[in-house]
Amino acid sequence: MSRKIAIFDTTLRDGEQSPGASMNTEEKLIVARQLIRLGVDVIEAGFPISSPGDFRSVQEVGQLAGDSCVVAAFCRARTEDIDRAAEALITAKRPRIVTGLGVSAIHLNDKLHMTEDECVACATEAVKHARSLVDDVEFFAEDAGRADVDFLVRVVQAAVDAGATVINLADTTGYCMVDEWGKKVKAVATQVKGIENVTLSVHTHNDLGLATALALEGVRNGATQVECTINGLGERAGNSALEEVVMAIKMHGDALDAHTDIKTTEIMRTSRLVSRVTGMTVQANKSIVGANAFAHSSGIHQDGVLKARATYEIMDPASVGAVGSEIILSARSGRAALRHRLDDLGYSFADDEFEAIYDLFIEMADQKKEVYDEDLESIIQERQRDVAAVYTLNALQIQCGDPLVPTAVATITDEVGVKHVVSATGTGPVDAAYKAIDRVVAVHGDLAEFAVKAITRGIDAIGEVTVRVTADDGMIYTGRGADNDIIVSSAKAYVNAINRMIQTSRSRDGR
Ligand code: MN
């Protein structure tokens, strides 16, 4: 049997650090539920001391996960961080504290102002303290990619001696060349005494487009855990993408002497879900999960694929769940068929919630006749957005054309239930709608990006709008809205971004 490679998903921690990709607790739970279906071994759910919202997310993901996977909480190598992480992990059946610090000269000198000896002492103390609180402690060596290899071995030795159960080597800045990184991992794997009794992990970034290659090189040189994110989300250019690492290990398992327990047919759905929840669009030519990942356009390629798929296709699209379902629902499908389809898609709802979704489904089916899986997912996400809303858009009436002055009349309910009817004119229908909304909401944001996309096929498809709004403090918030009418989608997306802005500032304040 080949080596089992544990998949440590950090979409909810490192991934969420992408500008504009922040998620509230409810959204993190939606993603966590799907990560569990996907079969990840570890979910890093947040950084508890960083905000009350992150604390709550770790707590609730811990509760949700039960026995199904390890739930990890990130912290710096500081007592107060570690204590807070342990507190948040009380609900978890399989808790892990992830703690560590920078180990490169540049981090020690310019960020931490520590000597090497102080760094070793700090690592030892942090791991010991964490081990006094939980049994599973991961020590991360930040910026290991630029660290001196002898010092790296020394600090890892100290962490292992202090009781770390997992050692994570991070190329935090995505700096390394592949062979150089492999040598570093190998040095730790062969020189640290007792390393065979702990899990060796790699955490790589994509600044040079090498994140997946670095992760695989880590595996080749002794790592048995890989840290990654869905769609490669993460700081700057992102982390290694789970779907790439997993499919490369699946395809080259023999050469790597490795396998994972990921249910690969769930990959596509997970990718779509994370993209929807965070508002971070996946580029069409993205490996594995991009819209064009299995599309063949040149005549020569099409001819080859028609004769034998393997001529130009190294994997079966079905193996990553990239084939559309042939099951199409309509207004005549009824409750049982809808429930069955939702079940297959991985959703289960209490009766009253199901009724609310059924009503939305019927409303959609009346308008567009054929309802695809993607439509159902959009209904569910719209519904989940509504439930958590501060402001809700109840109605929008637009008048526009040439030579009319674009005018919007909006009805918006605030969280205490007061209905506001407001109107505004603008340079176009979207501008008029946004100006009307601005008259009600108590915060200010500047529209930085606006994109509209059809969710499914056909002229009657649902139009989904994604907006990015910059708040006065420079933070970016993503909003999404879906409707048959793209002006309504646009207004919903804007209200959604405003809601996120307000919820984030409240969670920061601990309300
Ligand atoms: Mn990172």
Report a brief summary of the structure.
The chain is α/β, with parallel strands linked by helices.
Stretches where pLDDT is under 50 for at least 5 consecutive residues are: none
Q: Summarize the biggest pleated sheet.
A: 8 strands, parallel, barrel
**CATH-defined fold name of the largest domain:** TIM Barrel
Largest sheet: spatial strand order: 2-3-4-5-6-7-8-9
Distance between the termini: 51 Å
Overview of the molecule:
There is one protein chain. The chain is globular, with a radius of gyration of 24 Å. It has 17 helices and 16 strands. Strand 4 (70-76), helix 3 (79-88) and strand 5 form a beta-alpha-beta unit. It has 511 residues and is α/β, with parallel strands linked by helices. The chain binds manganese (II) ion. Manganese (II) ion binds at residues 14, 172, 203, 205, 235, 239.
Task: Lay out the secondary structure.
Blueprint: E1 3-4, E2 6-9, H1 25-38, E3 42-46, H2 52-65, E4 70-76, H3 79-88, E5 95-102, H4 105-112, H5 116-131, E6 137-142, H6 149-161, E7 166-171, H7 178-191, E8 199-204, H8 211-220, E9 225-228, H9 242-251, H10 253-256, E10 258-259, H11 267-278, H12 299-307, H13 334-344, H14 351-368, H15 373-387, E11 392-399, E12 407-413, E13 419-425, H16 429-438, E14 445-454, E15 463-471, E16 476-483, H17 486-509
Parallel strand pairs: 1-10, 2-3, 2-9, 3-4, 4-5, 5-6, 6-7, 7-8, 8-9
Antiparallel strand pairs: 11-12, 12-13, 14-15, 15-16
Helix pairs in contact: 1-2, 1-11, 2-3, 5-6, 6-7, 7-8, 8-9, 14-15, 16-17
The chain binds manganese (II) ion.
